[in-house]
Amino acid sequence: MRGKPRQRSFGGGRKARLRSVEDKLFYVLFYLKCYPTFDLASILFDIDRSQAHHWVHRLQPVLEAALGEKKVLPERKINSVQAFIERFPGVERVVMDGTSAASTTAD
Question: Where does residue 28 rank: exposed (0-12), middle (13-18), buried (19+ CB within 10 A)?
Answer without folding.
Answer: buried
